[in-house]
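dumping this here so i dont lose it
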C-alpha cells in the first residue's frame, strides 16, 4: 500500500543518512588544512580573534556547545589541524553552566563499547557498554553531588605539537548512582573565528549561526557579565583519506570550503 511504501522509503533514507559520516576513531586521524592569506591574517591579528574548533555530534546537554580548541594569533598563512582518533573521558572539577569554562580534573583513555565507573576518586573499568558508546556509572560516595563528565580528544596545530592533555568536546551531568551513555563523535567539525573565548568554553548552541556573518552574545547577572563574538561557522566533513581543506574568506569574515581559488 502507499503508506507502507512511504514508510519503507523513510527507513531507507534514514539508513543512508546514518551511514554518511564515519565516527572519529573509526575514521583514523583527521587532518584539516586551513589557508589564510595576508588579508585574513591581518584581520584576525588586528581584531585579536582566534580560530575555534567545535565537535558538534554528539551534542552536549541543555542546548549547549563546547569550544574544544582555540588557535590564537599570530596565525600563519597555513596550518594543519590534527584530530587524533583515541577518546578520553573526563570528570570536571566543579559545575559548568552556559558561558563558563570546563575545568577537567580526572581524565582517562576509554574504548567505545566499554563501561566505566567513578567512585569519587578514580575511574575504573566496569565491563561492557552499549555498542558505539562509552558508559560511565557514578558510584557516588555519601553526601556527594551530581558531577560533570564528557568526552575529550587530542586536537592541535601540527606545528605546535601534541599537547599534554586532550580537549573537552561535550559536557553532560551525571547524577548519583546513575549511568550516562555517550555516543562516539562523528567525523564532522565546525570551524569559525571569535574573540574572548577560551578552550573548553560552554556556549549556548543558539548563538551559533551558519547563515549570518556575526553574532554577539552577552549574559548579565548581578555578579558577572560575559560577552564574546563569533563568526558564522563552516561545517567540515572529511574525505576517504580523512583529509579536508578550507580557507578564510574576508568578504564574509568566515571560512569557506577548499583552498583559495587560483
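and the seq i came up w/
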Amino acid at each position: 500500500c502507499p503508506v507502507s511504501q512511504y514508510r519503507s522509503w523513510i527507513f531507507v533514507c534514514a539508513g543512508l543518512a546514518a551511514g554518511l559520516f564515519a565516527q572519529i576513531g573509526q575514521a583514523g586521524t583527521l587532518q584539516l588544512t586551513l589557508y589564510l592569506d595576508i588579508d585574513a591574517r591581518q584581520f584576525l591579528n588586528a581584531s585579536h580573534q582566534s580560530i575555534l574548533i567545535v565537535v558538534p555530534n554528539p551534542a552536549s546537554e541543555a542546548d549547549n556547545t563546547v569550544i574544544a580548541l582555540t588557535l590564537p594569533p599570530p596565525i600563519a598563512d597555513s596550518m594543519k589541524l590534527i584530530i587524533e582518533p583515541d577518546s578520553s573521558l573526563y570528570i570536571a572539577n566543579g559545575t559548568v553552566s552556559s558561558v563558563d569554562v570546563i575545568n577537567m580534573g580526572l581524565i582517562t583513555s576509554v574504548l567505545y563499547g566499554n563501561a566505566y565507573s567513578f567512585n569519587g576518586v578514580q575511574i575504573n573499568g566496569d565491563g561492557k557498554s552499549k555498542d558505539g558508546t562509552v558508559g560511565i556509572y557514578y558510584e557516588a560516595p555519601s553526601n556527594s553531588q551530581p558531577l560533570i563528565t564528557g568526552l575529550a580528544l587530542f586536537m592541535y596545530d601540527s606545528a605546535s605539537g601534541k599537547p599534554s592533555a586532550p580537549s573537552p568536546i561535550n559536557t553532560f551531568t551525571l547524577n548519583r548512582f546513575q549511568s550516562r551513555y555517550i555516543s562516539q563523535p562523528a567525523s564532522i567539525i565546525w570551524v569559525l573565528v571569535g574573540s574572548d573565548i577560551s578552550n573548553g568554553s560552554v556556549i549556548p548552541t543558539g548563538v551559533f549561526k551558519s547563515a549570518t556573518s556575526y553574532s554577539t552574545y552577552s549574559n548579565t547577572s548581578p555578579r558577572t557579565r560575559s560577552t564574546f563574538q563569533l563568526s558564522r561557522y563552516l561545517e567540515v566533513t572529511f574525505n576517504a583519506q580523512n583529509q579536508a581543506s578550507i580557507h578564510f574568506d574576508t568578504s564574509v569574515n568566515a571560512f569557506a570550503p577548499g583552498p583559495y581559488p587560483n
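Confidence is low (pLDDT under 50) at residues 1-20, 211-225.
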